[in-house]
Design a protein that fits this description.
Layout (H helix, E strand, L loop, with lengths): L3 H8 L37 H7 L20 E4 L2 E5 L15 H7 L4 E3 L2 H27 L5 E7 L16 E9 L5 E10 L1 E2 L3 E9 L7 E7 L6 E11 L12 E6 L8 E2 L16 H10 L3 E9 L17 E2 L7 E9 L2 H6 L5 H18 L7 H24 L26
Antiparallel strand pairs: 1-2, 2-3, 4-15, 5-11, 5-13, 6-10, 6-15, 7-12, 8-9, 8-11, 13-14
Helix pairs in contact: 1-4, 4-7, 7-8
Length: about 425
């Protein structure tokens, strides 16, 4: 298990790009930051900004921005002669460049738009892809060595839907599940899907994910209910609940995944399944449920809850005082979760990121050099370049292998359930 986006964020400035001498081509200043002092350009003489730009396809002119058009994340528009890229979905009515500070917003944006430069965006993606490829390779190697494992295989909290007449009356509260990861460094819960069983109406349900260490939500999800027949499932790719790490600065704490009852579409109510989450399921009823419950509760504790909030709470959603939590062990509020629990190297990679500088430099350099070799737009004799680069690529591939082999990741403090040898830690090696 890896929290790829967090690793990409944590390592994004580990190795930087060297700015071109002169005025063109210039890249976003944030791309030149390097914690290690290494640059991707230094991986090979041909990895110049000029050569990389020459391989990029010719882009059509961006359409003019319009205030009545809703833009999706990644869409490019032109405003006042400058191209901008949308940073969010459902981007409506936010004029690009209206409140920009060139020194900051060109690199990071104003929350809705960022100045678009094709080369800068390509290098951002190449760097992020290289980080992901490197991290995934490490986990694959640990899996081969049986040092990384799933502790709780994917399973729904409920395998059946509730009785349609078992409606949950509104309590004018924030309702859902409190999820408490139990102490286990390197152990992370992942929510793969959220299931909602609602009756009385269709429409949008806004689901929030909070952590007890901060007021603002970690995630805000708009889930559209289209049916009243059993659970409707919504896949999620980035809902991780680690014991530590991420946006949380302290070990432990509790997560709250919930919705506001008063914000539901008119007439909509959750459908309940009366399982008592305060005790072990009935062994005579379903042995599988008992075994799953025992396995899951080794690592997390799940408690249905409600908290009072004002009717207009959704206008500024913040986690209420958790001392006001009322636990409701037999009420599920029409919410189901498809989750798993596994060993997670993300925090170890981020905290020890310095050892990944050289492998990352070579990995991204190798990927880009291969791209330059195969691209037909290179402004040199392509046959001559291919012959020269093929040998260089083979040498670089061997260097990449050596860099991975030299890695030594300290996982001594990882939960013993994730280690091959209890208490001795695991050294990350390549065979």
């Amino acid at each position: 298990m890896l929290r790829i986006k967090e690793i990409q964020q944590g390592l994004q400035h580990l190795v930087g790009w060297e700015q071109s001498v002169g005025t063109q081509p210039r890249i976003s200043q944030s791309l030149t930051e390097s914690e290690s002092g290494l640059t991707f350009n230094a991986a090979h003489d041909l990895l110049t900004l000029d050569n990389i730009r020459a391989t990029l396809p010719v882009m059509p002119a961006a359409p003019e921005w319009k205030d009545n058009v809703t833009y999706s994340k990644g869409e490019i528009v032109n405003q006042g002669g400058t191209d901008y890229i949308s940073l969010v979905n459902d981007n409506l009515g936010h004029q690009p460049g209206s409140d920009f500070n060139a020194d900051y917003n060109d690199d990071f944006g104003d929350g809705y738009w960022r100045v678009y430069d094709q080369l800068s965006e390509y290098l951002r993606k190449a760097t992020a892809d290289g980080i992901a490829r490197m991290a995934n390779r490490l986990v694959e190697e640990k899996t081969i060595n049986k040092s990384s494992k799933q502790l709780f295989e994917r399973k729904n909290l409920f395998d059946v839907a509730g009785r349609i007449d078992n409606r949950i009356p509104t309590s004018h509260c924030l309702v859902g599940y409190e999820i408490e990861p139990l102490k286990g460094l390197g152990v992370t819960t992942q929510i793969h899907r959220i299931g909602l069983q609602m009756t009385g109406a269709t429409g949008n349900v806004t689901v929030y994910l909070f952590h007890s260490s901060r007021k603002t939500p970690l995630a805000t999800l708009t889930l559209r209910i289209l049916t009243q027949k059993g659970y409707q499932w919504f896949s999620q790719s980035d809902l991780f609940l680690p014991y530590m790490g991420g946006d949380m600065r302290n070990d432990g704490g509790k997560f709250y995944i919930c919705y506001q009852q008063d914000a539901l579409p008119y007439g909509m109510q959750g459908v309940n399944i009366s399982r008592d989450w305060s005790r072990e399921p009935c062994g005579g009823c379903n042995t599988g449920d008992v075994n799953a419950w025992r396995s899951m509760t080794r690592y997390i504790r799940i408690s249905p809850f409600r908290m009072p909030v004002t009717a207009n709470w959704a206008q500024n959603p913040e986690l209420p005082d958790i001392d006001t939590v009322a636990y409701t062990p037999t009420t599920c509020y029409g919410m189901n979760l498809d989750l798993s629990i596994g060993c997670d190297l993300s925090d170890f990679i981020i905290s020890q990121r310095g050892i990944f500088a050289h492998p990352l430099q070579l990995q991204v350099g190798y990927d880009l050099l291969r791209f330059v070799k195969n691209n037909p737009n290179v402004n040199v004799n392509r046959n001559q370049m291919n012959a020269a680069l093929q040998m260089d690529l083979e040498y670089m591939r061997r260097d990449v292998e050596k860099a991975y082999k030299a890695l030594d990741l300290d996982t001594e403090k990882m939960d013993s359930a994730c280690l091959a040898c209890k208490g001795n830690g695991v050294k990350l090696r390549t065979c």
